[in-house]
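Cross-posted from the bioinformatics board.
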Amino acid sequence: VDSQVWYACAGTAAKLPAVGSLVWYFPQGHAEQASSPPDFFPVSTAGGQCPALFLCRAAAIGFHANPDTDEVFARILLEPRTTLPPPFSPEQPSSSVEEPDDVGAMAVMKVLTSSDANNGGGFSVPRFCADSIFPPLDMAAEPPAQNLTIRDIHGKVWTFRHIYRGVPRRHLLTTGWSRFVNAKKLIAGDSLVFIKNRDGRLYVGIRRASRFSARVPQAPPPPAAAPPE
Amino acid sequence: VDSQVWYACAGTAAKLPAVGSLVWYFPQGHAEQASSPPDFFPVSTAGGQCPALFLCRAAAIGFHANPDTDEVFARILLEPRTTLPPPFSPEQPSSSVEEPDDVGAMAVMKVLTSSDANNGGGFSVPRFCADSIFPPLDMAAEPPAQNLTIRDIHGKVWTFRHIYRGVPRRHLLTTGWSRFVNAKKLIAGDSLVFIKNRDGRLYVGIRRASRFSARVPQAPPPPAAAPPE
DNA sequence: TTGTCGGCCGATCGCCGACAA
DNA sequence: TTGTCGGCGATCGGCCGACAA
């Protein structure tokens, strides 16, 4: 996966160590956060424990995306320094050292509203996104419209009809949008990241809302003055 | 899975050994046919070979169905006799010894036509199936119709509208049929087995057509007299 | 600027009898 | 007896502007 697109999808909160820098590998944190718990068998001691920290060198970083959910993750190859060899280590979040500020690219994020995610609708494009990411429309046309060619993080191409219409005027994605929503199983609360790289190529990334504490909207209690039903 | 339903779905060609009987376990045949090849490591000899046959006792039989495809398979627990212990063995087809003839139940099979499997249609119920499996219709009604409650091999309940209509009259499944076709991903050539057990409960099983040599129908060559296009 | 709604039109789904194999 | 077809009504998907937050 292209690292530029990866960073845009991961968000500014995601920090990765620079290749070659020294980091602490924290097995317990890895075991608690990883989707597939690592196997510490080869390094566990007679007492069944392994050391709490390993000093390591970040030898290589791989940028990846889940083929099903498009969620991004990084795989960091760690070389031990002065301690026993630890196992191969995927998914090491937030070990803050450096981030590439080579922003010749633009990225805009939007949280999907229920109108965006509901079937039978389009996608309301934020004005700033249309202005700074998408190619300019021919405003002489009636209505101004174009087809956008956008790649997801796997490189798969999606096309969307981008139209500027309604009173007052607004930017919308129509044809192609619902196919995308269904294919990616997007729901209200998920976020999209639209990315324009230095070559002008368009990408779209997904940040899923935490499904864990998803709360069902509830009817508010009646106002104090209202008599009980 | 209920063994009665299992046998109806497996068909009359499927033979299972009686529990307690002696059978030959044939590792190479197992390895060639099993979807997940067995691991013979613990019994392989220094030459990398394991014996061609094991005499075993069929200690227990489990009746199972693939949760995705509904295809049935059996798991036979084998106890070795006079040889080294073999590994646990799933899926041992056709070791012909016995089959339970306790047929207080009825089963009828039909291969799906393209009209059955195409969306936008119902299912033509063979006359014999309607007469011998389904509950009798009230022929005084116009048209005669009823809702059928039928369980798949996992026990999941499906409902179908069974109607007797058209000129000339015929039995059809309409409402509920296309949902079933889509959920089970049925295509023309697959077969259904309708089963009525001794209690009068209805079941439906699936036998998938071999996807391997599925051939696309081809236009026949023009008659000899026809001039070339 | 943009989230939600109702209208509306076209596409699809799915039930029907006709008809012939 | 039953496989396939065309018809057609109901439903749904999806594009639209209105309107208000």
